[in-house]
Amino acid sequence: MTSFLETDRRLVAPDAPPPRPWSSRTRWVVGLLALTVFLTAVGFLVADIVHERRQLDRAKTELGVTRDRTTVVAAQLTELRHDVDLLTTQIGNDTTAFDQDSSQLKGVQAALALTQADVSQQSVLIADLHTCLSGVEEALNSLSVGNQAGAIADLNAVSSSCTAASSSG
User: Fold this and answer.
1) Which pTM was predicted?
2) Domain map of the chain by residue range?
């Protein structure tokens, strides 16, 4: 056991002066420095927390604005969808009406073509009747003056028109 104690004594330098306690002035300077470092760190932390809180408040405000805009846009989108549905229905109805009108128009066009052909035939018949009637009138005038040969010539001149008119009617 003695050797352990002797070894322990050899580690401590016999010439070293004992540590001197700090003076009160040094303790105050070190304390003030420590307090300054501590308060500076706290100041930075508080400033950082205030900055983060402001950013959080701005983000919350922007989120609220975005939510409001989203609500408005969603309402507008719903209204537009409704309008599109109405337009789609109206287009369907208009397409059906257009198809019906087109069909009716084709029918009317066909009837008009038939009527035009009939009017054309009627015009030819009227022209034939008019020619025939004029020839008969001239023949009657010729007979009234005693010109039987002229009357026969007048009737022969219009006989084809009279035949066409009588076969059409």
Assistant:
1) 0.45
2) 49-168
